[in-house]
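Table 4 source record.
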Amino acid sequence: MDQQPSSSEFLFCYNPKLSKHLSNLGIRYITKGISPKEKRIFTLYYKNKELQEALDSYQG
């Protein structure tokens, strides 16, 4: 039986500037959507070393 991925394996990004930064670095998101509760756009990323390094370099 396959294990379901946990939410700790993903980053929900609600910051369009950060999402653009990640895109400029070549990091692709899994999906883009709108949160049903808050009606805000988000992009969803897998957490990995490459993503963490990009987050560390973000100057916001």
